[in-house]
Amino acid sequence: MTRLLGPQFRRNRRVIGIALTYACNLRCHNCDESSAQAPADTQMSVEQIQRFVNECTAANYHWDLMEIAGGEPTMHPDFLEIIDILRTYRNRYSPHTRIKVLTNGAGDKVQQLVAQVPGDIEVENSGKSGKRQVELKHATFNLTPEEVAGYEKVDYRNGCEYTHRCGTGLGPAGYYHCPVAAGMDRIFEWNIGRQSLPSEDDDMQDLAEQFCSKCGYFLKELEYKKPLSKPLISPVWEQAYEGYRTRQAEKLVTISAGSSSGHAVAAAPGPAVTK
Fold first, then answer.
1. Do 122 and 91 meet the contact criterion of CB atoms below 8 Å apart?
2. CA distance 208 to 214
């Protein structure tokens, strides 16, 4: 049916989710950005955000909604500067675009930064304290459909409701068919995100085929949609996280050996720089 009619869910070309940073001040179970399972301060740079804005302007591209997320976006050291860049784009080129910050609202520092967000920017604050276990639940994410009976012949190009609802994803390694995939590529390091603003006719089905096979959100049954009170990490994801940790350790050793001062900044592939 997918070959005949196309995918069930298509990339939303009017909404974009921007992952400013994968750093987070909480450690929620089954975090779909892996901020708990594989903590890191990987982030986008101001230059990358400016390049994104320049691409949109050059292509005369107008978003209905830009969602600024993480991790916890306020933990980005240039959070307010980035907000200002996006506001300038909206005010000059796309006045109907809504800009929304997604924050957990946990802690004094986060609340102080949220309070400085201009009034013409929407804030979706989940109001977590980080002290109550009930706040740290996420639905099944780290269970790959490939490991679930009945999904052996599924066409993963169909995507899921997040493909449409959350829109196009932009993260440190490029553009993706959904924001969750951008976070997944940090772990798997396939580095297959688009390196420039996707065209209108780019369905990104190749990315859906790759990432949705590893994403628990693709699972259709209601039992997989319920928030879990404890971590659930399947063997495929365990291996992925172990591989990620090993590669990060190797990079640190390489940087330490190659830098006389003991400090260095490594460049990631594509339009984004990882710190």
1. no
2. 10
- Taking the C-alpha atoms of residue 132 and residue 252, their distance in angstroms, rounded to an integer, is 34
CA–CA gap between residue 30 and residue 226 (Å, rounded): 12
Distance CA 7, CA 130 (A): 38
Say if residues 114 and 105 touch (Cβ distance below 8 Å): yes
Distance (Å) of CA 226 to CA 12, 128, 168: 25, 19, 24
Burial tier of 180 (Cβ tally within 10 Å: 0-12, 13-18, 19+): buried
- Angle, alpha carbons 208-212-216 (nearest 5°): 155
Tell me how far apart the alpha carbons of residues 28 and 130 are, in angstroms, rounded to a whole number.
9
Q: What are phi and psi of 213, to 5 degrees?
A: -70, -15
Q: Is the dihedral of CA 42, 47, 53, 56 positive or negative?
A: negative
Torsions phi, psi for 240 (to 5 deg): -65, -45
Rounded Cα distance, 115 and 108, in Å: 10
* Residue whose structure tokens are 């050996």: 257
Q: pTM for this one? A: 0.87
pLDDT in tens, 202-238: 989 999 999 999 999 999 888 888 888 888 999 999 9
Cβ(237)–Cβ(216) under 8 Å?
A: no
